[in-house]
């Protein structure tokens, strides 16, 4: 079993998996990246027990020392950046330039949070009583379960795992099955950075077994916080499960992200942003562009420029210089095929739809299209507000286009889907930019930039169907992995009762100036 990727509980590999499943290269499905040993619910529970057992000792380590461990992770990630990025490209088909950027995101996250180990500030608060002091402290929540998707197989998990560990929590991580080989490499870097056994555990399991294991662990009081990145449908189920135990999970879900193009926008810049937003990572980001909402006066010009840019974009072998490569996995290919079925007779399709094959070729394709899960980038003009294509996340290389008259209409269209993750506006008018930001429901707004892109020190997260208002990254994520504790210390030598024994300062409220 040494060649099979196995779960890790308390620093030990869990032998005898329920079954194994292959992880293949989506750009070359004949390339077996690794065999994954899938565990049952009992392994998830055992991992939660190990995390619970290790948490007290880990939390007792001073926060600056935990910060040093995070610094070690950052240094090892830097040393292994090219190797880890190459594995990301091989296992999920992300272009190498993007994969390198993803690993850099981990390094940036570590750089930010290693310093937080010397902050984690509370406050000293004045008391209304004499000889009494009030304090606030951040305390770790306990054992944390992290369930993540595979489209960002190492960057997004780091947004949970790094701050969770820094704050004194322990972790049970369930990565996606189709990115489990790179997930195992990610774990090994943490293990070699000084993270003790039991503090960081990894469970490889399918969705139903993961849910069953999480349900049992919550029922047993073993898990204190859940972080989930994935679909809105599954996020809703996890939110319901956590609610039964009076817990609030950190949910980062899907998106149908709008981009508004105003009548005064720099159209060349807007096209560049739409191209990267819509088709980078083959449209498989939660922040990918869903619908371009274009002002009527510039609609024709924008669509013409956008179609030309998409037609000229390089796609194919992700180890080469391409905008995007394959879909992540067969199940995503099947889901995207369903999305293409939403294209109706009233739509105008620019470009070719469907899978790239010798019978359905793409000019300038880089590599062998028959080897992998490659799909044509498609623009669908004329989408209407009640279309399935307008309302639902597609998670693949298709972008809808619609028009608007005035900015309030554009904002209403941007909010209609019920998602609220990311958004963008292209304008040269500051008033329009602020009006859009105030009216759009998205948790993230870009002005003259793409809907995609995150920095390690800026809050990341959405509202509505895109999440429950929780935020990752920067100081804001600390509220997910710490609990506020207040402490009052009375050294007066007597019982002083707040709101009852306070001194009232008298005033002459009848005084008037002559």
From TrEMBL:
Keywords linked to the UniProt accession: NAD, Oxidoreductase
Keyword field contains Isomerase: no
Active site: 252
EC number: 1.2.1.3
Gene3D superfamilies xref list: Aldehyde Dehydrogenase, Chain A, domain 1, Aldehyde Dehydrogenase, Chain A, domain 2
UniProt domain Aldehyde dehydrogenase: residue ranges: 19-486
Keyword set includes NAD: yes
Top class in the EC scheme: oxidoreductase
Source taxon at top rank: Bacteria
GO MF annotation list: aldehyde dehydrogenase (NAD+) activity
InterPro entries cross-referenced by the UniProt entry: Ald_DH/histidinol_DH, Ald_DH_C, Ald_DH_CS_GLU, Ald_DH_N, Aldehyde_DH_dom, ALDH7A1-like
Pfam families listed in its UniProt record: Aldedh
Subunit architecture: Homotetramer.
The family this protein is said to belong to: Belongs to the aldehyde dehydrogenase family.
PANTHER family found in the cross-reference section: ALPHA-AMINOADIPIC SEMIALDEHYDE DEHYDROGENASE
Protein known as: aldehyde dehydrogenase (NAD(+))
Protein species of origin: Kribbella italica
């Amino acid at each position: 079993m040494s060649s099979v990727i196995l779960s890790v509980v308390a620093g030990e590999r869990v032998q005898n998996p329920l079954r194994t499943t292959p992880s293949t290269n989506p750009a070359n499905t004949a390339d077996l990246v690794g065999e994954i040993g899938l565990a049952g619910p009992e392994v998830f529970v055992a991992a939660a027990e190990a995390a619970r057992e290790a948490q007290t000792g880990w939390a007792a380590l001073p926060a600056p020392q935990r910060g040093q461990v995070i610094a070690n992770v950052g240094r090892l990630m830097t040393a292994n950046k090219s190797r880890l990025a190459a594995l990301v490209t091989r296992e999920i088909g992300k272009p190498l330039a993007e994969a390198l950027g993803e690993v850099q995101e981990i390094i940036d996250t570590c750089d930010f949070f290693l310093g937080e180990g010397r902050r984690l500030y509370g406050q000293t608060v004045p008391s209304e009583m004499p000889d009494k002091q009030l304090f606030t402290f951040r305390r770790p929540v306990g054992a944390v379960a992290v369930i993540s998707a595979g489209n960002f197989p190492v960057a997004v998990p780091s947004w949970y795992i790094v701050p969770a560990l820094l704050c004194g929590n322990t972790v049970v991580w369930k990565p996606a099955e189709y990115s489990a080989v790179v997930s195992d490499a990610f774990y090994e870097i943490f293990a070699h950075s000084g993270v003790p056994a039991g503090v960081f555990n990894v469970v490889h399991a399918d969705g139903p077994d993961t849910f069953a294991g999480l349900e049992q662990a919550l029922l047993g009081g073993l898990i204190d916080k859940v972080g989930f990145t994935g679909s809105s449908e599954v996020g809703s189920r996890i939110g319901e499960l956590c609610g039964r135990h009076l817990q609030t999970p950190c949910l980062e879900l899907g998106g149908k992200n709008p981009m508004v193009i105003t009548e005064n926008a720099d159209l060349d810049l807007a096209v560049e942003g739409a191209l990267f937003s819509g088709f980078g990572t083959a449209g498989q980001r939660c922040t990918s562009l869903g619908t371009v909402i274009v002002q009527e006066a510039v609609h024709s010009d924008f669509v013409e420029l956008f179609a030309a840019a998409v037609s000229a974009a390089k796609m194919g072998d992700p180890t080469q210089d391409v905008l995007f490569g394959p879909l992540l996995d067969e199940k995503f290919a099947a889901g995207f095929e369903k999305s293409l079925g939403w294209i109706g007779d009233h739509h105008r399709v620019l470009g070719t739809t469907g899978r790239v094959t010798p019978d359905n070729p793409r000019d300038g394709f880089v590599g062998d299209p028959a080897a992998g899960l490659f799909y044509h980038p498609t623009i669908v003009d004329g989408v209407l507000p009640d279309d399935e294509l307008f309302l639902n996340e597609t998670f693949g290389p298709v972008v809808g286009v619609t028009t608007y008259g005035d900015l309030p209409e554009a904002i209403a269209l941007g909010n209609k889907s019920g998602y609220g993750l990311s958004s963008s506006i292209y304008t040269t008018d500051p008033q329009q930019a602020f009006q859009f930001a105030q009216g759009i429901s998205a948790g993230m707004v870009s002005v003259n930039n793409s809907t995609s892109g995150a920095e390690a020190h800026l809050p990341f997260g959405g509202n509505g169907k895109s999440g429950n208002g929780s935020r990752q990254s920067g100081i804001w994520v600390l509220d997910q992995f710490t609990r506020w504790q207040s402490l009052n210390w009375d050294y007066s030598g007597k019982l002083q009762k707040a709101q009852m024994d306070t001194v009232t300062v008298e005033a002459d409220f009848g005084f008037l100036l002559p």
